[in-house]
Structure formats: C-alpha cells, structure tokens
Amino acid sequence: MKLEEAKQQFIDTWGALGTEWGINKSVAQVHALLLSSSNPISTDEIMEMLVISRGNANMSIRQLIDYGIVYKKHIAGDRKEYFVAEKEVLKWAMKIAIMRKKKELDPVMDILKEITVATEKETTDDGKEFHNTVKEIQELTDQLEKIANKVFASNRADLLIKLFKFII
Amino acid sequence: MKLEEAKQQFIDTWGALGTEWGINKSVAQVHALLLSSSNPISTDEIMEMLVISRGNANMSIRQLIDYGIVYKKHIAGDRKEYFVAEKEVLKWAMKIAIMRKKKELDPVMDILKEITVATEKETTDDGKEFHNTVKEIQELTDQLEKIANKVFASNRADLLIKLFKFII
DNA sequence: TTTTATTTTCAATATTTATTGAAAGTTTAG
DNA sequence: CTAAACTTTCAATAAATATTGAAAATAAAA
C-alpha cells in the first residue's frame, strides 16, 4: 500500500466512523487529513485534497478549532492561514469526549434528574415503577459521570488505563 | 408534573439523545416508551402513543429485539404480539455497547491495524510520522477494547464501577 | 486610501436518512 | 379449506442534514 493510499483510507474510515456516531463527515475527514499530515495545511489544500467546497472546509475547520483539537498556524511571509491537528491521541480524544459530554449528555442528565424528582411521590404501581426506572438510569449515568470527570480532571488517563489493565 | 407528562418528556429526551449519537429517533423513542411502561405494549399502542406508522413501529421494534434489549411477550387469549423492554439498566446499556462496538468500532480497528502494518516500513519523515499517529490511535483503542471486553465478559460492570469509584 | 488576498456567511441545493402506507405475506380461528 | 387478524416488506415520499458557491466582510499590501 502506497503512503497516499494509506492516508486516503485513514481519511475515509475516519469519515465513516464519524458519521455513525453523529459527527459530520467533512469535519471528521478534515480532522483525519490534518492528523495524517506532518505539516500545516491551508484551506485551499484541504478543499483540493478532500474535494469539498470552501464553505464546507471553513466551517469544518472552525468546528475542530472550537473543539480545541486543531490549531491555527501562521507561516511567515504567507497571508494564508494554516492548520495543524493536535497529534497527541489521548489529548484530542479527551477533548472530544469532554465536549460531547458537556453538550449532549449533561443536559440529558439534568432532565433525568428532574424527572426523578418530579415522580418521587407517585403512588400508583405504574408511577412508582417508572420513577424507579428513570432513577436507575440517572444514578448509573451519575456514577459514570463522576468517574469521567475525575479522569478528565486528572489529565493522566494513560496511567488510569494502565492501572485498569492491571486490576481487571 | 403529571406522570404522563413525565413519561412524554423522557421519551422526547431519549429520542433527541439517540439522534445525536447516531441512533434512529423512532428506535430510541420506542425503547423509551417500553422502558416507561409497566405492562407489555402492542404495535398498535406504540403507533398511537408515538404517532408513527405501522412500518416504522414494526422496524423499530425489530431493531430493539435484534439488539436484545426488547422481548416479545405473548398474552393469553390475544393474537397480537406485545413487547417489553429489558428493565435492568446495566444489562441493556451493556448490550447496546457491545452491539455498537462490534458493528462500528471493530471494523475500524481492523483497518487501523492494517494501515499500521502497511506503513511499518515507511522511510520518509512524513511516512514515519503518519505511521506513528495511526499506531498510537490503534494502540489506544486496542487497550480500551481489551478493558471493554473484560468488562463485557465479566457481566459485573456494577462491581467494576464501585471498584473504580473506590480507586480514583 | 485603494486594491488585492483571504476568510466568513448563509440562502439555495443536493444528499442522506427516516417514515409512510398499502400490498404481500403469515398465522390463527372458524 | 377460507376468512379474518395480524405482521412484514419496500417503493415512494418526506424530513433532516450536509454542502455548495457566490456575495459580503475582513485583513493585509501597495
């Protein structure tokens, strides 16, 4: 397999995986492209290499920058903006996890909590069972969130993985 | 908040969360509806309560049954099929996790492995750096997969959560 | 300042994904 | 067996989501 082929396959795979998990294909592909490149890349190069429009390239880059996993890089004597991806895997993986948790999971956890409280005083069997179901989900996500928060805060997920492998 | 209101909010929230994570809205809503009900529910009731078509209801139920998180329930003297959701949270959460891992993550891990091997002998700086990036991703996912497999196999994720809370 | 290069925005359009509903298939009752 | 009850399938359609591309905005150079 030639290098360019390998890179292309990586980009395609990343794009497909993103799609399945609710991440825009172009965003995932731009991320993969930047990950697979040693040097900073400009918007024009991204457009050309992924065959996407300027608008799409621009918005995808911006989203990755918002996630904090891609940085702008100024190149002396060039007016264009260049971009590089955070290459440390655990670092960007954690940033994506933190961002998605905050944006998508936290609001749901709040609602689960609300529902749990609101159904506390149900008297019917049906009401009590629903309360218990929601409460169980809420308590489990709560425990997982506490663990996740500690992992995120520690910034030493690598050590934790080692520890976990040792224990289990 | 009235019980019916609470249930509806649970169903809506579940549907929205599913959508964000690549799970069909109707599938997630049917799951939530079954979770929030003490008694088995028929296709007709699902159609009525969620205001969806027979085809959609049928396919959503089937998918949940395929996941192994919803069961058919025969009711004596009734020709209709009724359905109940697995109520034990950890049980269905694990089943969903296992299924998605197998279907969506495992193939990607295979490809990452392939790319890692295929770029082993790269000689250019660019080639070597790409190889390292992919290898790092591959190794991390590999470690996480091993942990996940053990957790899945143990069927005692509850104990592991307690253990983890204790350690960290 | 004016010109030119570059980036951003967003309405229009294309693509993908979800949903419908009626016909075909299946099962059970009479 | 035949009819009725129920389930499944899937082509057609609708809805949601992603992408384009050109105009507007911004920034740098002349």
Strand and helix order of chain A: HHEHHEEHHH
Widest β-sheet, arrangement of strands of chain A: 1-3-2
Mean pLDDT of chain A: 95
* Estimated radius of gyration of chain A: 21 Å
Q: CATH homologous superfamily name of the largest domain in chain A?
A: Winged helix-like DNA-binding domain superfamily/Winged helix DNA-binding domain
Span between N and C termini of chain A?
38 Å
Overview of the structural elements:
Two copies of one chain form a homodimer. The first copy, chain A, is mainly α and 168 residues long. Chain A has two domains: 3-85, Arc Repressor Mutant, subunit A; 89-167. Helices cover 73% and strands 7% of the residues of chain A. Chain A has seven helices and three strands. Chain A has helices spanning 3-20, 25-35, 43-50, 54-67, 89-118, 125-154, 157-167, and strands at residues 41-42, 70-74, 81-85. The first copy, chain A, has a three-stranded antiparallel beta sheet. In chain A, strand 2 (70-74) and strand 3 form a beta hairpin. In chain A, helix 1 runs antiparallel to helix 2 (25-35), helix 2 packs across helix 4 (54-67) and helix 3 (43-50) crosses helix 4. The first copy, chain A, is elongated, with a radius of gyration of 21 Å. The model of chain A has no long low-confidence stretch (mean pLDDT 95). Chains A and B meet through helix 1, helix 5, helix 6 and helix 7 of A and helix 1, helix 5, helix 6 and helix 7 of B. Chain B binds a DNA duplex (30 and 30 nucleotides) through helix 4. Chains A, B: This is HTH-type transcriptional regulator. Chains A, B: Belongs to the GbsR family. Chains A, B: Keywords: DNA-binding, Transcription, Transcription regulation.
